[in-house]
Amino acid sequence: MNSTFQSVLVVDDEPGMRAALVANFQQHGWQTECASGVSEALRKFGETRFPLVVTDMRMPDGDGLSVMRSVRQSSPSTAVILLTAYGSVPEAVLAMQSGACDYLLKPFSFEQLQAAIGRVMAGSARTCLHDISAKTQLVGESPVLVRALERAAAAARTDADILVEAESGTGKELLARFVHEHSARRDQPFVAVNCAAVPEQLLETELFGHARGAFTGAIAARAGKFELACGGTLLLDEVGEMPLALQPKLLRVLQEREFERVGGTHTVALRARIIATTNVSLRAMVEAGGFRADLFYRLNVIPLSLPSLRSRSEDIPILAEFFARQIAAQSGRAVPRLTGGFLARLQEHSWPGNVRELLNLMRRILALHSASVLDSDCLEDEALSPGPEVPSSGAGAGMLLIPGTPIRSLERQLLESTLLETSGNRTRAAAMLGISVRTIRNKIREYGLPPRRYA
Questions:
Q1: Residue 390 CB: number of other CB atoms within 10 A?
Q2: Span 109-121, mean pLDDT?
Q3: What does CATH list as the number for 7-122?
């Protein structure tokens, strides 16, 4: 157990819960003290300033919020984790707004408790979502991020399908995992499929599975992602890339909550919640004819979003220091100190690649610089700038809007000017034009544009 915390105060009016918590903490090397209610907890905390308090939300003589407020008032550095059996979203939101570092819904596993403690020890815990398979984490304290997570926490308490629209690199899959882990399905599978990464001809069997003999080479039946996610959550990542021919089949599954394997006759019930993500506007794609309107409305039951990194620049120093600690721990080196100049330079950048871009930069900086202090000189070779200014006349300012100009010529000019505006970034160009990245790729090929220039 991390030495940052050495002792914990456990507050719960249920003797069995208190005993179980104390036993688990002691098993992990903690010194423990317990209290059966608010008054006893405040008395014991007045005698000993515990670095960590784990408290139940509702007790006969008060609530966990009272404990937390008193504790944080007298000891701002003390971390507080709240426990509640009621699953109340307003309570949870109020707890986080009031300064709780994390909260858990009863019944919870001790693995979930230890994960929450890990988040607290990692810093910025109230918005740091831990997942061992993730390449990055949602970290920050900006109001815009906190609001996004509060909305996601509320959505997690329902069983409705969700659509997450956000830029690439903001952490859409992490938000989907956050919803899963804060839902009643958290102990069931979380299954993800990237609709853009699976070849079009294989996506149907990837989702639905196939029966034996469904096609040449299908020597055995195979379950698809819909079945593998039974009882849990299925993430359809970059759903805007789904071929139009497959969209009616997905719509039917969402409407009927059942499906058949490819080549099969047996109906299988859909018992997974669907979370779809996209880095382009599906509404714009609908208007452009690239996505079915009925499928969009069926997916968009609860819309969620994540802010871009440039819209929460106050989180950039927090993220940079978090990544520095994380990368240093992975490489076995001491955590470097980031100077004010270093952090200020990071905040000046527009971060078109969002958090993923910052994470990769921090990996690069720590790999190339072994000093114990990192200042702005370490960023001299990095292409950090506020980003290109958008001309007042728009990205298509150079287009020849002459009556009688062939549509194909205008389309090519618009495509080229948009790609130039985004420095060749196909994902951003697709979002601006309201079409899929696959369509961008096909148009580049159709018009013979240099593919390497627009990678």
A1: 10
A2: 78
A3: 3.40.50.2300
